[in-house]
Amino acid sequence: MTTSQPLSAPPVAVLRAHEIRQHGKIIDDPYFWLRDPGYPDVKDADVLAHLEAENAWFEQAMAPHKELVDTLFAEMKGRIKEDDSSVPQKDGDWIYWRAFEVGAQYRKWYRKPVSGGADQLILDEPALAEGHDYFRLGAVSVSPCGRYLAFAVDTDGGERFEARIRDLETGEMLDDVIPGTLSALVWTSDSKALLYSLANENWRTDNARVHIVGTSIAEDREIFHEDDEGFRVSIGLTSSEKWIVIGTGDHVTSEAWLIPADDPFAVPRLVSARQPGREYDVDEHEGTLYIRTNDTHPNFRLVKAALDAPDQWAEVIAPDDHFYLTDVTLFKRFYVTEGRLDGLDQIELRDYATHEAKRLPFPEASYTASLDDNPEYDVEKIRIGYESMVTPDTIYDYHLRTEEWELLKVQQIPSGYEAEKYGTQRLMIPARDGTMVPVSIVYPKGFPTDGSGRLHLYGYGAYGLAMEPGFSTARLSLLDRGFAYAIAHIRGGDDLGQQWYLDGKLEKRTNTFTDFVDVAKGLIERGFTARGRISISGGSAGGELMGAVLNSDPDLWGACVAHVPFVDVLNTMLDASLPLTPGEWPEWGNPIEDASAFDLIASYCPYQNVRAQAYPPLMVTAGLNDPRVTYWEPAKWVAKLRATKTDNNALILKTNMGAGHGGKSGRFESLRETAEEFAFILWQMPE
To answer: How far is residue 600's CA from residue 582's CA, in Å, rounded to a whole number?
Structure first.
């Protein structure tokens, strides 16, 4: 439904009686009807009409601020080098890179021979995106022989990717088309077959399959199947590319199998049988397996094992209370460990004989650093990415023999950027239980500390995902209007190690919410801002965070933006038919079987706990095709807020009718959505 007539009032969702009974309790959910029973094919006329009416209300509310949106968008676009390209990297006989053309939303992929020769366009994203409102490139993989390019595309945001193969010698697309993939695309060593996983009817990858190039997909063979509906299957290669790794697991348990890369139909070798609560990943070097695992300590350790006795582990690097081992990358003559020391990124070079570490130095007190694109196994240098809240994305080659840092690229900002205009700090703020919570903050020099300043606070706090203190060109539009911008590294992420994650999930989930509130109060105490002068944002599980802190402390916030918010936690965890639910029970609890989990989730679920009180101005986004946070969660939440809250503050919902979890695709379209978010904040929190 669209209308050209001004709306006199926001849409009001009708009430339709619906009950859910569990553990002797009754949940009334009068907005349950907003879930189309045909999902993911959403065609219910009433549902679509309501979403379109909400979109019309959003457009009407934002229309007076179009000039501000356009200004912000122009600023953000002006900070992007339109003809930007990646740093070329050698992989075998070829040098590969990606490049944008001026005005293009998507990249083109190129290569040229190491021995010399013309540039070759191997993948044209703009051509693939033509005619589609949404486009996302998934897995990309060149065959070992260099002749074939396998890639996968999503054209509606539903994250069911269609895999295709291009012959790079002739430029022709092969007839091989595999719909419904959701995985990496891994070649066998002879370049004759491709391994992949299909998403089943519930958007779960429970399989690994082999496709022989040039044959019908009807002839593809399943070589691995996972029976646990909460586990997901993944496919990868060891660093030496001698072995294919089939991984399976959920958020807390994992298991790995090995298959020779030259024999995909060989019987998979089990590394070590799954044990509840134990995670591990595996790589191989000269017949020895290197395994990163949390079997004895939440911060992980490194062990090794022989190929013929893969579950007999000997410790190589002991676990550490302060160092969180996040990744291990094997090269032919050395290996690299990555991790965080008390929350700060570290990169360490180690030799196979002594395993002693050489830790690479970084210049700032707060930053993010990691290995970048390193496709080759036998190397003399490694590529590293570095940035901070004031230092743009920077790419180096570190030369192992000379210990020289070779600067390859610094992110260019065409409209100009002066780092000295901004300050950054890493603060430690006490939570109510005494735990010290890290906070990364950036601000314009001269920012007041008398409580008069405006501050934006961002948080996530789930799934053990750390929020890195990196650089953002878009963020400058807030800083240059006098805002400070802070990231709260709250429990639920793994910013300070895996225990930090464990202390923000299941029965400790509410630590995430109280940490965020306490960080805000701590910033107020330090004079950075005041009640009502804080805007906040978060997406997905970070949107759940937004909903929880709006319910608990609504007067703290001057404005809130919740992107694809996971706010109907209880109903979603009670529905095992939804794509992610069984695999999510280790994260949130299983309220179907566990009455205490039911009560806990019900106690904090944002949708269930909307109450008659004043809420701050709120902007909410959703994606109709989102398989992760289904569109009806934000729609139901907004409907209930409209009917319940006692204020007249702005409440607007924008549902992308042709996109999924990540919003609109294309580098400029996504920027426009950020411009809308910032315009909403500036509208609600003027100077």
So the answer is: 18
